[in-house]
Amino acid sequence: YQPKYNLETGEVFGAEALVRWELPERGLVFPSDFIPIAEETSLIIEIGEWVLDKVCEDFRFWQRSVSSPGRVSVNLSLRQLRQAQFIKRVKSIMRGHEVSPTSLELEITETTLMENPQRTIKLLDELYGLGLHLAIDDFGTGYSSLSALQQFPISTLKIDKSFVRNVVTNPEDATLVDTIIQMGRNLNMDVVAEGVEDEAQLNFLQSLGCTYAQGLLFGDPMSSDNFLELLSAQADGTDSYRALFA
Ligand code: C2E
Ligand code: MG
Ligand code: MG
């Protein structure tokens, strides 16, 4: 889990689930090494369901200790979205764990969304109707149709980390990031900056009015237990990252 921070209050407002595969002989395998291969077969459907199931299980576990773990996001692949039973499966997993859809957010990359916008709108409307939040991931790397953007029931825009990387030093990246933040705001979306690695980037994003951020500045993605510790520390007022926002 990678925590997401509210840049105005310094509070953790949830996390993004990032899948890892631990192999006894090889150690940790990252999603970039197995998701693209899984996407070529129906394995991605099983992996996707496993991830959602695990997230719901962890969420219930956190809820026993902290009243509001925030909103947890799960990444989706195009093939999952296209699966005929997708909505039924998502509903059944959430119901099985008694997790409210409003606690979850599904992240779909801009490229996936724009693959066939007309077909996707209907599906997104159904997911939104269940109460799920929807986010556009890696925004800025694809080719968005502005009219599709306006029609999608999307509540969150995630600025791709490639723009955040040089936001302080490269005026063109700064202009792009500023434009995305303004556009998100005008479309009534939450804007999350991905890949924040240092304080200079954090301060710059704050000055542009970006509301949320995640990245290595706040540490590596963590286990479910460690995320619960972070939430508990926050509830006690001892979250060590709070100082960054002072
Ligand atoms: P993403 O959803 O855009 O996730 C952000 C990636 O950036 C993650 O890589 C994260 O670990 C990494 N990251 C976070 N903060 C920083 C930072 O400050 N600097 C840099 N350089 N990188 C940072 P990760 O975990 O290797 O995941 C890569 C991609 O794999 C994800 O990109 C997502 O598209 C996909 N993915 C991850 N988990 C799942 C999953 O459960 N299902 C599916 N379908 N895809 C997944
Ligand atoms: Mg993501
Ligand atoms: Mg991303």
Please tell me about this protein's structure.
Strand 9, helix 10 and strand 10 (212-213) form a beta-alpha-beta unit. 36% of the residues are buried. The protein is globular. It has helices at residues 31-39, 43-65, 78-82, 86-97, 110-113, 117-130, 146-151, 161-164, 171-186, 199-207, 224-236, and strands at 2-6, 12-17, 21-23, 27-29, 71-75, 104-109, 133-139, 156-159, 190-193, 212-213. Helix 1 crosses helix 2 (43-65) and helix 2 (43-65) packs parallel to helix 4. 47% of the residues lie in helices and 18% in strands. The protein has 246 residues and is of the alpha/beta class. The mean pLDDT is 95. The chain is built from eleven helices and ten strands. It has an eight-stranded mixed barrel with strand order 1-2-5-6-7-8-9-10, surrounded by four helices. One magnesium ion binds next to strand 7.
